[in-house]
Amino acid sequence: MKTRHILSVLVAPLAITLTSCATSGGSTSGVKPYPLKTCIVTGNELGSMGDPITEVYQGQQMKFCCKPCVAKFHKDPAKYLAKLGG
Length: 86
What we know:
Layout: H1 2-24, E1 53-57, E2 60-64, H2 67-75, H3 77-81
Antiparallel strand pairs: 1-2
């Protein structure tokens, strides 16, 4: 009986922690999906230069063909966001 009580005291916090991580950890709710099949900066087809780089910028998912494009985007985001039409 004593062992069962100790086990439940140890397991309950773990279960709560795992549940909260599963529901809030990598959640993308509220993030607008990226609508293009091309890099927002260069217009290259996504995947043409390896795995696309994905990032969320002010609630909008963005996709880039390579790391240099991420840096270019951050220098003038408004210029590239205009390509999304919104």
